[in-house]
Amino acid sequence: MDIGSILAGLALTLLTVAFVALPLIQHRGKDVTETERLSSELQAGRDRVLNSLQELEMDFNTGKILEEDYRSQRQVLMKEGAGILRRIDDLKAGGHVRFEGREIDDEIEAAIKQIRGEREDRNGGFCPSCGSEVKADDLFCIRCGNTLSDVEGQA
């Protein structure tokens, strides 16, 4: 092997290393805007809903889930998908994207409020013997067994 081929190989190796290392040295990266990030997030959500719909359809066709479960799950996924598509359209039109998570939060808060109200309605006070909480329709204390007929007036 002569010196010329060694130098040519060395030059080719240095050029390759420089070409590969150049992006690492320059640190030039594309900054992602908030709109691009949100668009990517919405596209991922749309893809997730479509995949879930396909899996749901396949599970229903193979008999893995009942028809009423299929219909209710499909309705939820279609509603979620429609919301995502609406937000994508708003983003493409240059408008402000609404976050539907707040609507879901309001629904959850209303459900919690209803459950707490039902729980308070069932509260019958406290056992006069041991002090544990009893329900309004309890006849005996679950902890000590005391008769609760005289507790009905307490709340």
Description:
- The chain has 155 residues and is mostly helical.
- It has a domain at 32-98.
- 65% of the residues lie in helices and 5% in strands.
- It has a two-stranded antiparallel sheet with strand order 1-2.
- β1 (123-126) and β2 (133-135) form a beta hairpin.
- The chain is elongated and about 110 Å long.
- The model is unreliable at 151-155 (pLDDT under 50).
Topology (SSEs and partners):
Elements: H1 3-26, H2 34-61, H3 67-92, H4 101-122, E1 123-126, E2 133-135
Antiparallel strand pairs: 1-2
Helix pairs in contact: 2-3
**Record field, number of beta strands:** 2
Individual helix count: 4
Name the average pLDDT: 82
Give the % helix. Answer: 55-70%
Structural class: mainly alpha
Radius of gyration: 33 Å
Low-confidence stretches: 151-155
- The span between the termini is 101 Å
Beta-strand percent range: under 5%
| Major sheet: arrangement of strands | 1-2
Major β-sheet annotation: 2 strands, antiparallel
Shape: elongated
**What's the order of the H and E elements?**
HHHHEE
